[in-house]
Amino acid sequence: MSNNILVVRLSSLGDVILTAPVYRALKSHWPDCRISVLVKPQFCAALQGNPWIDEVIPFEGLMASLERIRSSGFTHLLDLHANLRSWLLRRFSRVPHKVVYRKDALARRLFVALGVPSPVLEKHTVQRYLEALSAWGVPSAGHLLSLSEGGRWTSGPALRPEKVLIIQSAFLGDTLLTLPLARDVKALWPGCALIVLTLEKTADLFRASPWVDEVVIDDKRGRHGGLLGPWRLKDELKGRGLAIALIPHRSFRSALIAWLADIPRRVGFSSSAGRLLLTDAVPFAWLMHDLERNLALLKPLDGGSRASPGESVYLGRDENACRAVAERLREAGLKDGQLAVGVHPGSVWPTKRWLPERFAEICRRLRCEGFFPVLVGGAQDAELCGRIAAESGALDWAGRTKLEELKGLMPRLALFLTNDSGPMHLAAGCGVPTLAVFGATTRELGFFPYGAAHRVIEADLACRPCRLHGGRSCPEGHFLCMKLITTEQVWEAAKAMLAARAT
User: Fold this and answer.
1) Is residue 355 pLDDT above 70, yes or no?
2) 325 with 372, same domain?
3) Whole-angstrom Cα distance, residue 478 to residue 151?
4) What's the CA angle centered on 270, arms 266 and 276, to 5 degrees?
5) Looking at the predicted structure, is the pLDDT value of residue 159 above 90?
6) Which of 160, 279, 303, 437 is 20 to 30 A from 411 in CA distance terms?
């Protein structure tokens, strides 16, 4: 009889996502085992389609779950939650082989409340999960997510496409992280014409790219909006001779557009809402950076992922924009030899914004140390940045720089301090050392600043991440994810990064 394994994880989205390497480790050790996962109903979708999971069970209360467990013939129970509720499930489950991961909850609480350090806190949550498997003789090393399993794609002779389409109509950050994919398309097929379908607000990024030959606007709020919009857009794409569509955007609409346009190869992610309309579905690995995930879309087309972790600078510069920004900075008071620091305190989502008074204090300290802080953001950040500028004396450019000018500012910066946001990826893509403050979101979602020169500051809380993209308000009502990140923490990190740049 093969092993019938139940994994219990009844916490937040981020914790559930981080369990993924456990299932691969179990399947690698026991290929014939059956794996079921018990999670909160709202997080079931995060595990659906995982190639190593046989069943996702929604938690519907203690007694109902116990009844389900007892009737399912489980031989093994792995508790990755380690609280009173999961202890009761273990205790009364009647499953013969049970293991619980080491949570070290007391050490975490002492660190958050009193700042008491402990060596046990240095382990990543994934490492803790995997180490729990050693009680069953399952090796814990080498089981991070891979792109080599779980996908489906067509096979055939080597491709030499004349025209390739990339569909990306998401946020600024998503757009920026698509540019390396454009670069690698041109490296793989140097003679092809690369066309990008995107929104008007992000079109200039692709127009300025040396790897993009044409930009087609997806007018979602105009003629391409509504139920008939994809059909209208199809008419603009069909007949162009497009051989391949690469679709990093995981919406049903994006896959539908490629399908309607009769593009022969449609490559997207296995987690796409339009997966059935794709010819090639690449596994969506949560523990990878989004930049690398996008590059993995080339795997079905050239036999291997082209992800290159060392290549973190992927945005070129417009020398005219750089000169114009340099002149504006000089007129604003930047002295010769003085280092400027970019500060972006805004975000579309309030739960992704660090406290304004702490940004103001950082700007004051930067000025006292001889640096030149520059506040940046969109028009929606004008009021926020105006308050911070009034309290700190920082230069306020919120709403006063177009995207090309913001890119032109980047080479002038010694550091970029930011929340989790689109400008964060812009700075990282330009090679500016980036210090990011993460609240509602976490690194594990794959959108941290890409490259070795950058840092992320975040609080270790079980409620994070509360949303995939952030939210309007803290679901718990305490906003500790940002309140626990002190001015001193950010200031010490900023000083260290500025010092490293000077050496």
Assistant:
1) yes
2) yes
3) 40
4) 60
5) no
6) 437
Do 180 and 47 lie in one domain? The reply is no
In a domain, 171, yes or no: yes
Considering the domain boundaries, does residue 8 fall inside one? yes
What's the total number of domains in the chain?
A: 3
Quick check: 424 and 409 in contact, CB under 8 A? no
Residues 480 and 422 reside in one and the same domain = yes
- Look at residues 136, 171, 187 and tell me which one is the last residue of a structural domain: 136
8 near 78, Cβ under 8 Å? yes
SS3 373: strand
For residues 340 and 478, state if they share a domain.
Answer: yes
Residue 176: domain span:
163-301
Give the DSSP per-residue string, 255-281: HHHHHHTT-SEEEEETT-TTGGG-SEE
The DSSP secondary-structure symbol of 152 reads B
DSSP 97-122: EEEE----HHHHHHHHHH----GGGG
Alpha carbons 423 and 181: distance in angstroms, whole number: 19
Whether residue 413 is found in the same domain as residue 383: yes
H or E, element range at 330: helix 319-332
Burial of 320 (0-12, 13-18, 19+ CB in 10 A): exposed
Q: Which two tokens stand for residue 324?
A: 């114009």
Q: In what order do the strands lie in the sheet with 395-396?
A: 395-396, 372-375, 340-344, 413-419, 434-438, 455-458
* Residue of 470 and 328 predicted with greater confidence: 328
Is cis: bond before 119, omega within 30 of 0? Answer: no
Structure confidence at residue 226 (pLDDT): 83
**pTM summary value:** 0.53
Residue 436 located in a structural domain: yes
Q: Which residues of 251-276 are buried (b: 16+ CB within 10 A; e: fewer)?
A: bebbbbbbbbbebebbbbbbbbebbe
Token pair, residue 294, equals 């996008």
The percent of the chain in helix, strand and coil, each rounded to the nearest 5, is: 40, 15, 45
Tokens read off for 154: 């067509």
